[in-house]
Amino acid sequence: MTNFNDAIGVFDSGVGGLTCVKEIIRLMPHEDIVYLGDTARVPYGTRSRETIERYARQDIRFMEKHNVKLMIVACGTVSAVMETSPIFSDCHVNCCSGVIIPAADAAAAATKNGRIGVIATQASINSGCYERELKRLMPHCEIFSRACPMFVPLVENGYTQVGCPPAEFFVKEYLSDIKNSGVDTLIMGCTHFPLLEDVVGAFMGSGVTLISPGKVTAAQMYDALKAQNALNSPDHKAKIELYCTDSAELFAQNAGRFLGDSVNAQIIQCTLD
Amino acid sequence: MTNFNDAIGVFDSGVGGLTCVKEIIRLMPHEDIVYLGDTARVPYGTRSRETIERYARQDIRFMEKHNVKLMIVACGTVSAVMETSPIFSDCHVNCCSGVIIPAADAAAAATKNGRIGVIATQASINSGCYERELKRLMPHCEIFSRACPMFVPLVENGYTQVGCPPAEFFVKEYLSDIKNSGVDTLIMGCTHFPLLEDVVGAFMGSGVTLISPGKVTAAQMYDALKAQNALNSPDHKAKIELYCTDSAELFAQNAGRFLGDSVNAQIIQCTLD
């Protein structure tokens, strides 16, 4: 049975999932959070399906050990693979959500013309998960998708500002066809991508709604916990534990860009394999 | 004792070390080669020293199991870390070489003005290994070094041509200070970097000698094996085995860019952890 005192678990291949944690803190400031970033093996999005499944199984076992009341798979790549994989079939967490369904729900609600763009990692695009979910919700929608492999390194190295030549180059390279297809909604299907929101938004124009899967998933989980009376009490002082598989020092260096500097969290190194 | 029939072992974090394998094949076409690319955990160069050491130990154990007569650590990052680490102290391979010393030797031989540039991964630059080795060889040389974290993703995604805007941008970003310092020799201290040789060479100018560690290490190992009469016989038909930790299919897709298409090799998936 769900214990409202238990933490919310979030995992990602690296630091990107902290964009989701940031939104959880904003919406649910009294929740304990256990975050896992597999920074010793990041990125997942360029690897084979088989390797992603192996890593995801270890991530899930880690979350199970921490007795979380809810597990959010913030990693777009794992979310994409899990949809058609048995990796979650023997998972012992009561409630578990990837980011694909919340993002597809939000995109379907936002679009007016039924033309939706999807950008994500190569593994996510290969899986076809967004297409399947969007077609289930809106059988007549048209979907335009593209892998954006250079976005993760651009974000990790801080090339994210409007006017920054390589950021502008790759946004144009990856998004021109999608823009020309007349979409009015764009799913930014990787936890790193929202950090390029300004450049992507300026290129796509104000008529296009950008969907950040981490954010909309946090919002959907807030509604779910509230409906079940499973939120922690307002006098609880939240404890935030950030686990990483590479060094805590390296994690701390990179986390600020995603989480902001005001969050008081403990960073702990752990092993999965 | 070294058996001249045994293979030459080469390992790297990913496919980049195939630039070294290519040179071995050119210089020593009758040698069997066992290559290991840890593609399920690539890249190493952005990780902590501790994680790099853990991965390197597993790579070395793999090579030991294959009874190689010579082991080349083609990975610049592992080569950098091993120099001041005990990871090789209990290694059972007779002869083992990283790429740092051969590259420093070649740079010291090439420079006329004693001003040498070094570009590599963040972990390699942090280690200070090139500085130490160059100062040992040439106490009065001046060294100008810089980490180039965007070069690996540029190479892996094929943005390597002269005139390609992001390649030109990052070459200028990373190399302007080094160029302005008046170096006449530049060590391209990561196995991926030689694929950007044309852009780097055009930017630095024809007066600057570019050193490719994988190539010069292959050449130094050729001399060493020849001197020891440890080369395989000229009637031996070489067998080339390429092991990878992520899928063989994905490896095959990426290997061609580094190795060329004419090489007949077997690709085999393996596990290390």
Can you put this structure into words, describing what you see?
2 copies of one chain form a homodimer. The first copy, chain A, is an alpha/beta fold and 273 residues long. Chain A has 2 domains: 8-98 and 215-269, Rossmann fold, CATH 3.40.50.1860; 100-214, Rossmann fold. Helix content of chain A is 43%, strand content 16%. Chain A contains 11 helices and 10 strands. The first copy, chain A, has helices at residues 18-27, 49-65, 76-82, 100-110, 122-127, 129-137, 151-156, 165-180, 197-204, 213-227, 248-259; strands at residues 8-12, 33-37, 70-73, 96-97, 115-120, 142-147, 185-188, 209-211, 240-244, 266-269. Chain A has a 6-stranded parallel sheet, with helices on both faces. The first copy, chain A, has a 4-stranded parallel sheet with strand order 6-5-7-8, with helices on both faces. Chain A is globular. The two termini of chain A are 29 Å apart. In chain A, 51% of the residues are buried. The mean pLDDT of chain A is 94. Chain A binds chain B through residues 39-41, 46-48, 50-51, 149-150, 152-154, 156-157, 159, 165-166, 169-170, 245-247, 249-250, 273, and chain B through 39-41, 46-48, 50-51, 149-150, 152-154, 156-157, 159, 165-166, 169-170, 245-247, 249-250, 273.
